[in-house]
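Retro notes
What went well: the complex prediction finally ran end to end.
Inputs used:
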Amino acid sequence: MSLAALRARIRAAVADPALARPYENATARGRARREQSIARMPDWAEQRASATAIRHEAVERLDELGAAFERNFAAAGGCTWHAADATEACRIVVTILQEHGARSAIKAKSMATEEVHLNAALQRCGIDAIETDLGEFIVQLAGQTPSHITAPAIHLTRQQIGRLFADKLGVAYTDDPVELTAIARRALRQRFLGADAGISGANLLIAETGELVLLENEANIRMCLTLPRLHVAVAGIEKVIARRADLGPLLAVLPRSATGQEMGTYVSVVGGAGPPERHVVLLDGGRRRIHADPVRREILACIRCGACLNACPVYERIGGYAYGSVYPGPIGSLLGPHGIGIDAAAGAALPFASSLCGACRDVCPVGIDLPELLREGRERYVRGSGGVARGHTDGDGVGGRDTSGAQAPAAGAGRLEVLGWSAWAFVLSRPRLFHFVAGAGRAILRRATGSGGGTRAAGGSGNARPRSRLAAALVGGWTLGRSLPTPARRSFLKEWERRERAAGTRRPAA
Amino acid sequence: MRIHLFVPCFVDQLAPEVAWSTVRVLERLGHAVVVPRGQTCCGQPAFNSGFCDQGRAVGRAWLRAFADAETVVVPSGSCAGLVRRHYPAFFADQPQAASAADLAARTFELSELLVDVLRVEDVGARCEAVACLHDGCHGLRELGIHDQPRRLLANVSGLQLVELPRADLCCGFGGTFAVKLPELSVAMADAKLETIRGAQADLLISGEVMCLTHLDARVRWRGDGLDRGHLRVLHLAQVLAGDGGERPA
């Protein structure tokens, strides 16, 4: 997706009046809950520092810890699989289910299965899979995808959900949340009891013990993990942590960052020992390429809490779908160019979907420098190297269609833009030339805004729109919704220089 | 103290009053202000748009212009933040690595220079207004500037400061973001203006000229004057100079 295509999606989202309010309200609630829970915690900074150290250590030791997890999970009776990409992940899950004669599955909330579009693959193979997390259940019923990493139905009002339930489940309309929840519970109950397989993601994988860790509030995950005779988890390879003791800080920061809870209502830690029979599909899907790049590596420390989405003033305005990726918000804009959540070519421009305000960095519980990585991502976009590090080639091609986009066509800046910035640099690194050009530019804009003299506050006043095409070209998209600022009659620097000359050497120039 | 003034390009071109006010505040406190020739821009627009080589070309000119500076003051947290937090990395593998690291440590935003370095909280200014303060994102998050402007404004006589709800909410300017994704930038301005409308203030103060320019331009385009007549905007330096930012004759 070029920047122009991204802009078109964003323009549509911004223009949709129905979108703004739900996202504004939901993110405000998310921020408030997070802040309150952190305010009640005396050692937030320490826990966050520990969580950061744990995750960054784990990412550095990714291969070693991944192998240890696999060994220990297998020793207890579990089975691990490796999926290079989305297609392979789906094929593996389908194969496991088919080998066990499973015709129906209950699903726990999982972004990894969203990422590989598992539901569509299961459906194609005639396996009936139902989402059991309330938000995911709603979204699946509506034929949509999650609009938020931790709150999938954040974009829907309870009235919309009431109409959806009445429509699809044949119940009487209600918009009472308690009743709606009861309706969903009744709809799911029989499915829980009758399912052949449970499918989940994993919040963390413990290398030391070969255990999966899953957090939730609805106990649906517990049922997915225990009721059917078969359990398959799909998890990104980066989910691994070294020790069980690492859970302390991570379980302290994750729920607080995600929902403002002191702890998840249910925390499940399960190993390879059954029943049920357990399988873990470890998904690469572009992660190894990120790992191979020391600059980008810290992206893998992410624990998918969604706090950066709630903090982001862009997400708040455009919502979860305008990004075009399974992973919206600042973290999604870092993953996208690497082909995670969206085709790499399509996700290449995502680092521009940020004002670089840095609010995401403030809330990240594992210390990811998101704004700097977004800025650096723009350099890659301009170079046309997308998410791929310079000189790095993809060497892990394992069958199946590679949706991670190693061979994705380079995005790159247009020739005209490169030329423009080079001209800009040429002029701005030559002060005399700069003052000449800037003076001419000011004159054009002043004429365009029809401004007279007089003094102004910062920003000044002037007419709404540029009167000349030349002026319009100078200001680009500025005047789509904004008046032109009136440039000053005289530059401070020129005026200062003039006065210094007039006063002889009274003010020493450096 | 001899203080070298960096006048960001947009201040110089759009709001030179802010530079004059900065000079007056510092001179009034007895400091000698030096304005190095050869300065144009810190290079941020290019750096943040992904054109680092072009940004570095401009940054090198900046490093040359300020080579002799002991202390650099900038009436912008964003430009000061770029020099202090990013120059060392941008020039790490360049011949200018040492001077970039050196100047980074000696470059300060105006309110931080006053409060943290010069230990001044009362500049003797007067301004009759009910005002609110918008924290520029880079000053706030890269330099940790939050209390400094508030302390300075608390000592401005006649000024009643109303804390904005979500004072740290980005105004949506974001440099080239404002023209690359203009519809989004404008929508963010509207969200910010909602918080300002709620604050019932008659003056908006910020340490960032471009945040103010962006918001002011949006208010004027909408033509609704934010329900309270024209929204007045002033840079912090203009308030501290106590002269409404007018240029001396």
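What we learned: The mean pLDDT of chain B is 93.
What to try next: split runs per interface for comparison.
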